[in-house]
Amino acid sequence: MSANYRYWCGECHYRTPWLTESQGAERQIDHYAQRHPGVPPGGRVEVRQADSGYGCLALVGGLFLLLVLLSTCSSQARSAPLPASPPTAVTTDPAHATALAGGEHAVPHPSRGASPGRP
Ligand SMILES: [Zn+2]
């Protein structure tokens, strides 16, 4: 899965392909057994910076989450104040007020009927 290890021979210019840590170590030991018998495996291990890909993924994921959050926020904000909201608000406000007034007019009726309803 994570073939990010490349083992370099310390005795010659041999290097293993990109392998997992254990696979690379095996290859290097094999190489030493074939090419440098009696020499303890040395050299160095090159580690590919592929882990930064995960960081990149996390960053992209975070950005995506942020975008989703922003889009939900902006859609909510967009639904509340429409571009033509100031004029409509002005026109709907009196209508709302009259509706409320009409409601207030209707309110006394039941209360008046309720008080003399009980003898
Ligand atoms: Zn070698």
Automatic annotation (TrEMBL):
Q: Where is this region: Disordered?
A: 77-119
Keyword match Membrane:
yes
Transmembrane regions:
52-70
Which keywords does this chain's UniProt record carry? Answer: Membrane, Transmembrane, Transmembrane helix
**This chain belongs to which protein, by name?**
Uncharacterized protein
